[in-house]
Design brief:
Helix content is 38%, strand content 14%. By secondary structure, it is α/β, with parallel strands linked by helices. The protein has a 7-stranded mixed β-sheet with strand order 3-4-2-5-1-6-7, with helices on both faces. Strand 3 and strand 4 form a beta hairpin.
Length: 253
């Protein structure tokens, strides 16, 4: 993670990004944004942004030579960094390119993927882990070919207990047989233990960092929590820049 921020400084010097964008290193406290109701977005992604996500795919595939990366947990250090949106766009890009994709909304604290995909929230991840529904029963189709979704399901009074369930290990393995990629949305690492616990069952983690918002201490704390369980961080995305996803941020990790 440290190299990510070093990359930002180096990129600024090389005029890869605008000087004002280096304010991602600003240590001034920023208030967390208030949750907003999910609003369905367009499935049409601009070509220049698609190219950024395709570069992201290639980079992820090259992170572990000899091992197939199938299950990826998307998370962030704090709330409001755009994790769900990044996962949403990446999933559509993969599916549009012919890969089969299963998206799982494991963010039981503030689930929004059901809204983005125009799906019913009930009968999803919660019911699956509790054993009230089978995997086949909770997988929902979308209007995107090759792309399916497991929504968050019914709200649970103690989400952390679900991620500690031993049944989740078996379920995660079963999901791998349903798609080329299994992408999990998750809550902020610094706010809840859910992501750190669940990450141990996943091939790797992609962290989303909000440009001009995320503080160094917050990102470093999240990194340490994830790596405590010897989980591999596959890459870091600098989100909400003026341009598309920065492939140089990956290359400099």
């Amino acid at each position: 993670m440290g190299k990510t921020f070093e990359a930002l400084i180096k990129a600024e010097k090389q005029k890869i990004i605008d000087p004002e964008e280096i304010r991602a290193l600003d240590l001034t406290p920023h208030p967390y944004p208030q949750p907003k109701p999910p609003v369905a977005v367009s499935f049409d992604i601009p070509p220049q942004i698609v190219e950024g996500y395709l570069k992201m795919k290639r980079t992820l595939l090259s992170t572990s030579p000899g091992k197939k990366i199938k299950t990826i947990l998307f998370s962030s250090s704090t709330a409001g960094e755009g994790t769900s949106t990044v996962l949403f766009n990446f999933a559509i890009t993969l599916a549009s390119g012919g890969d089969t994709v299963l998206v799982v909304d494991a963010n039981l604290r503030n689930p929004i993927l059901h809204g983005l995909f125009n799906l019913e929230k009930k009968n999803g991840f919660t019911e699956l882990v509790l054993g009230n529904r089978t995997l086949q029963e909770v997988i929902k189709g979308t209007r995107i070919n090759n792309l399916s979704v497991i929504t968050s399901g019914t709200p649970h009074p103690n989400p952390s207990s679900l991620f500690a369930s031993k049944s989740l290990d078996t379920l995660t393995e079963q999901m791998k047989s349903h798609a080329d990629w299994v992408l999990f949305d998750s809550p902020p690492i610094n706010s809840y233990s859910d992501s750190s616990t669940f990450a141990e069952k996943i091939d790797g983690v992609v962290m989303v960092v909000h440009a001009e918002k995320t503080r160094w201490e917050e990102a470093q704390s999240a990194k340490e929590q994830i790596e405590t369980g010897k989980v591999k961080i596959l890459g870091t995305i600098l989100n909400r820049r003026k341009m598309h996803i920065p492939d140089w941020a990956y290359k400099r990790l």
